[in-house]
Design a protein that fits this description.
Elements lengths: L6 E2 L8 E13 L2 E12 L7 E4 L4 E7 L2 E2 L5 E3 L3 E4 L5 E11 L8 E5 L2 E5 L19 E10 L5 E4 L2 E7 L4 E12 L6 E4 L2 E8 L5 E8 L8 H18 L7 E7 L6 E2 L4 E5 L12 H16 L8 E2 L5 H19 L2 H21 L10 E2 L8 H34 L3 E2 L1 H12 L9 H4 L5 E9 L4 E9 L11 E8 L15 E5 L3 E6 L7 E3 L9 E3 L4 H10 L3 H20 L3 H20 L5 H7 L5 H4 L9 H28 L11 H20 L5 H10 L3 H11 L5 H13 L4 H12 L6 H10 L8 H13 L1 H4 L5 H13 L4 H8 L10 H15 L6 H12 L2
Parallel strand pairs: 2-12, 18-19, 19-21, 22-24, 25-31
Antiparallel strand pairs: 1-23, 2-3, 3-9, 4-8, 5-6, 5-9, 7-8, 10-11, 11-16, 12-15, 13-16, 14-15, 17-18, 20-21, 25-26, 26-29, 27-28, 27-30
The chain binds tryptophan and zinc ion.
Amino acid sequence: MSELALTRLADYQPPDFTTLSHVLRVVLDDGEAEIHHQQRFVRQGASNAALVLDGEALTVQSLAIDGVALESTAWQYDGKQLIITDVPDAFALKSVVHVDADGNKELSGLYRSNGIYCTQCEAQGFRRISFALDRPDVLATYDVRIEADQARCPVLLSNGDLIDQGMLDNGRHYAHWHDPHPKPSYLFAVVAGDLAEAQRSVTTPHGNELDLCIYTEAAFIEQTDFAMDSLVHAIEWDETRFDLDYDLTRFNIVAISDFNMGAMENKSLNVFNTRFVLGDTATATDQDFQGIESVIGHEYFHNWTGNRITCRDWFQLSLKEGLTVFRDQEFSADRGEAALERIANVNMLRRVQFAEDAGPLAHPVQPQAYAAIDNFYTATVYEKGAEIIRMYHTIIGEEAFQAGMRLYVQRHDGQAVRIEDFAACMSEASGFPFDGDFFRWYTHQGTPRVVFSSHYDEASRCLTLRAEQQTEKVKPQAALVIPVVFSLLNKAGEVYRFSDEAASDLWVLEEAVEERVIHDIDGEWLPVWLHGFSAPIYYDYGYQHADLAHIVAHADDGFARVEAMQTLYRRLFNAAYQQDEATYQTLISATSAVMGNALASDARSAGEKALLLSIPATASLINALATPWDMDAVLGAEIRLRHDLSSMLAEQADAYLQQDDTSTDSAYSAADAQIRQLRAVLLAHLAEADSGQWRARFTGAYEQARNMSERMAALHALNVRHDAAREAALADFAERFADYPLVLDKYYALQASAKDEGALARINALSEREGFVISNPNRFRALVGAFAQNLTLFHAPDGSGYRFVIGQIRRIVTLNPQLAARMLNTFAVAAQLDSSRQGLMTGELNSLLEVDGISTDVREVIERILGGL
Ligand code: TRP
Ligand code: ZN
């Protein structure tokens, strides 16, 4: 590996100084900013330590301590750090710096997007606005005065309370904000621009009176109703389920078109990607609405889990993210059908996090070292982190979990703490030692596998269950503490009642091999493992194919039913991949019969039917295969499996779709979304089975669509084949929504998921069009991100797919390094590929390393991928 400097958890030192308060005057003019910044420091370390502040891309205009200007010999600034030697033990530093907002395309620090100035400070963006101890363990109050042209920037926002505003000379005005809650610099925010406002005043269940405001460009303001409703629901939910109240009277959300991530939890001034705020029936799918609700919840929930209680250092990132993802998942589960929400989350976890954990980018939830912290906003830190929190909850139950939360808040409010501190509170409140062996979930990487088996002894009427952990993939190798929620099902489809009458039981594995005996039990009971996916593991049990069908029909846990169905799909995929004809033939009829029964069932919700009938993503099916993967066989198996199953279901799917479909309201509701999801899945099956006879039906569905969900379902069906019907619908779509950037993103993503022979040429041409705005991350992800998920084109044997993606990344690699580094994650799969594809990927990655001025985050990702080969 190269000379990349690593930051290590083991080297953590508290800072030599801390900051008590910041007073900022942010003067905005014509795409530039002057930052007048006064901050008070007190020494808390060695008496001879110099003051060392972070600062990047800043032009220094003046520096003064306690009102006395600093001589140029008294300080040094190398573009990364400002060092001032000889400072007193307590003092005020006044700095004036110049920042080029319009020149900032990295979208970190202060930048301008469609005329709106905004900031992004997590993780290390504040240092691109002014000098500071830019680390999360320095908490201070912020007092911010913003000045700008009144006509161009009528709205001026920062954190906390608005305490004053007024006019200045030359058509300029100011607003003065004060945030009374001490916070780290990553939660600072400023927004200024010509923004429209949607406002709602609410009284919460706990009687708090709040002013909620959403800001966005005037053209989009009508599309913010759903986001506002979601915010109200989130506030109510946090009060009622977690007993956590908001701590100011005003809460602002700003929606910005150019944003690197989903959204950001700045104190009382959340900044969002427009994608997670804007949406109405005509422009957003049901899935988009669910995304909005969940991200609005997530950012709001950070106010307690992240802002009031924050991270000591960035190795603790999952302290706030894992816990907040768990909270947003529970919010969504409480608002919809919990089992369906859980299945969707698990599908994502397996597709993304399990893959990450198996490759060269694997890392513990509490990483030990990093070159660029921006590279650690990962599925492991977020999603596996949330799974760990869910395991606490599963092991001790809601009541003890909430007691642990109360202790955590009581003990650590206003502090910057470690994951260990959270575990200690949960241990103390519940009596379960989460700070013991359980803590390995944070410090170890890799996905464990558990092999279950069982044995029934007629003579003694004992059922022995056995669990053996395979720990090879866990690093450092060790057994983990694994909560297994399971039930037993008999031939009649009845559920065993445990001694406390519960239908399922919790078995917490602590050793590598454990047995559990159930005494005095009749007949042969079939174990149903991991209700609700009670631990993020791989697991096996020697089910007969018929056992799986039995579980789909009778298990009393929605997750377990869908899981059994997915196991059937996985077995079928494996048989196709290994060209095991006999198994394939047996399984194909068994599986399609179970699909047919599921669709016809009266006992299942439409949403569950949709999931039962969805073949898992190939990206998750391949995770369990032996390496190197034969990608040609993978793609062949995928096509065969989809075509065969869809063809067998087609007649029944067709009949179902012919039924009246106007029972749903065209607006979003969780219940109607389920029905539409099922119809979309069935339409997709028709498209896979199609030899041309249903194309007109798909066109009709497109034309008659009453909302974006129906429209997208029809477009996906049309997109399976490149013909005139597809072209006509896509052209109409692009024209109809020409003024809706978020909808056009869908157009780019559709184009990038076509698989026919001419697709790459068309996608290449699209990437050259003016509409493909390279500086807009949503547009870039729509085309290039969707292409990288298109396994057929991405893994083309001639390397053309890899070349296309790297070619696009090269266009942004110095412009927006965070985005480039993130997109490069798809190349981590190189480690599992055949030597030819590995060679092609390596060549492309090496060529990118040659680019002048490549950033640390990009270099770190490429080197870790290449180092894993
Ligand atoms: N804290 C944000 C969240 O979880 C994530 C985030 C937003 C972020 N913008 C970022 C992380 C920029 C790194 C860089 O909601
Ligand atoms: Zn978050």
